[in-house]
Amino acid sequence: MKRFRQATLAIMIGSLAAINSSSAIALDNLPDLGAPDLVEYDRQTEERLGRAFTESLMTQFDLQEDPEILNYIRQIGYKIAGNSGQNRNFDFYVIRNNTINAFAGPNGVIGVHTGLIETVHSESELASVIAHEIAHVTQQHLSRTYEYNSTQGSITSFATLLAAVLVGIYNPNAGMAALMGGMGMNMQDQLKNSRQHEQEADNVGIQILHESGYDPHAMGDFFGRLAKSSQFNAHQVPEILRTHPVTLSRLAAAENRAQVMPPLKVPVESNDLILIKMRIAAEKEDFSKLEIKSLTASEQCYLHNLQELNRKQTEKQLRQSRAQLDCLLREASENTMQPLYNTLLIERIKQFKERNSNADLKQPISEALKLISYQQELWPNNLAVQLRHAQLLELTGEYQKAMQVLADGSEKGHNQYQINNYLAQFAREQNKEALANYYQARAQVFVGNYARARHFIDEAKRINNQRNEGIDKQIDFFNAKYTQNLQENDQKEVIQ
Ligand SMILES: [Zn+2]
């Protein structure tokens, strides 16, 4: 194995060396763009930048909200972040976009494009990119490369520009085009990580990747393969290689570092990646990147049910697709430790119920409920398990229990923004408008948008006074708890 890896690396280096030096993939003659280290941001500036950056991601880009996909990335991200040796803030987002990219923004905000998830060959490769980004954060590369000061405009416009450059998709609205014109191009150059920063992110990243139970060779494998596959076409360089240039010495150093790692004590690689790829493919109804022939019977069952879920079906077709549900019921019961089967089963049950189908769902409902209660106990922070559990309870008429399941996760864990938004949706479905606004206010607090939180809590109060939904206490408590933040924002720009 060891020898094989060295041999492939040697071949790869040989072919990379043949590339003309004007190619976009930099070789060892890469100019070191990492300017002398700049002053690091103070904590407060970093937090403000992080909030504005998140706001920009949420308003300017197409964020993936599928709880299964989001949960998958967060679960990998927090596992690795937990081994980074730093007790600091991290947030993980998925951008719905076909380009191969991942980035580390200010204050530990990390983004992964769906195109990256579709391209990796293993969960370890995906984890390796996330570990590399986490390392850029812990080593404070962004703040050491690009210093923010108030002469560059407001924090909001700076963060918007930063997001545009890092995400690499330019929202063609007029404001952003103007921003991109002057300062943007300059920033684009500066944000390219230097050779030294890349090496450091690899070193630290491979270490924490390994400590988290993933294959330490995955980072070199992935970046090497990307560089190789794009070497003949300078116009199709994956976005990620523009900000994280691959050099021969970088690949060799990554491989050397991985070689000296002891064997993994407890490998953590799951079988979820292929199912997550299916969900991405199903959303855009393009399965061309999936290797359908190599799917196991369980995975095929997952795929068929996913396709049934997304298909606009006639009554008759839906009745016929009841047979698929039985295979999923079997898979969910057999793969209790892989809750993706059960959460899809619940989505399918919901589909039948919403279409007022008269199919007999007694057995699937009781089995799914038994499984999901168990899974929720095992993984209390799994966003998909929480939402699907609540949805199933709502379907069976247990609204209060459904709200309780979500409320349990709404004040702790990493998904508070999403869970409070789910609570708002559930409240709205029950025609509880004041309560819905109250939960929306809470959701905004978790992404630091106090201007919007203020708007929603005022709405909650107004509607509650009119309709008396009986949530006075919650509103007063909310206002008391966040008085300072809600007032602080009075002077700042109000976000629409
Ligand atoms: Zn990098």
Helical amount among residues, as a percent range?
55-70%
Unreliable sequence segments: 1-38
State the end-to-end distance.
Answer: 57 Å
**Proportion of residues in β-strands:** under 5%
Biggest sheet, spatial arrangement of strands: 1-3-2
Number of helices: 25
* Average pLDDT reading: 85
For the largest beta-sheet, the strand count, sense and barrel status come to: 3 strands, mixed
The counted number of beta strands is 3
Organism: Thiomicrorhabdus xiamenensis
Keywords: Hydrolase, Metal-binding, Metalloprotease, Protease, Signal, Zinc
Signal peptide: 1-26
Protein name: M48 family metalloprotease
List keywords for this structure.
3% strand, disordered N terminus, signal, globular, binds zinc ion, metal ion binding, 25 helices, Peptidase_M48, single chain, metal-binding, mainly alpha, metalloprotease, three-stranded mixed beta sheet, 496 residues
Account of the protein in words:
By secondary structure, this protein is mainly α. Among the domains are: 2-259, no CATH class; 413-496. The protein has 25 helices and 3 strands. The protein has helices spanning 2-17, 43-60, 67-81, 114-119, 123-138, 141-145, 155-167, 174-190, 195-211, 218-229, 239-243, 248-259, 273-284, 297-310, 315-320, 322-334, 340-354, 362-378, 383-395, 399-409, 416-429, 433-446, 450-467, 472-481, 483-488; strands at 91-95, 102-104, 109-113. It has a 3-stranded mixed beta sheet, with helices on both faces. A hairpin with a 4-residue loop joins β2 and β3. α13 (273-284) packs parallel to α14 (297-310) and α23 (450-467) packs antiparallel against α24. Bound molecules: zinc ion.
